[in-house]
Amino acid sequence: MQVDEQRLRFRDAMASLAAAVNIVTTAGHAGRCGITATAVCSVTDTPPSRDGMY
Question: For the whole model, what pTM was predicted?
Fold first, then answer.
């Protein structure tokens, strides 16, 4: 996926957030992790990142 397309898809996804509670998940070398967040906001679209308040 090209960077510009990834940025646009991330922006579209952030604009579509309608839920009052968000489930944020990740997976890495240490394993899987997840949280529920009552508010999230976009931090940057390069790389696509968001911040959660929970």
Answer: 0.41
Answer with the residue of higher pLDDT: 53 or 5: 5
The structure tokens listed for 27 are 């997976």
Helix (H, G, I), strand (E, B) or coil at 10: helix
User: Distance between CA atoms of 9 and 3, rounded to whole angstroms?
Assistant: 10
Consecutive H or E run containing 37: strand 31-37
Which residues have C-beta within 8 Å of that of residue 50, sequence separation ≥ 6? 14, 24, 40, 41, 42, 43
> What angle is formed at CA 46 by the lines to CA 29 and CA 39, rounded to 5 degrees?
75
For residue 47, whether the previous peptide bond is cis, meaning omega lies within 30 degrees of 0, is yes
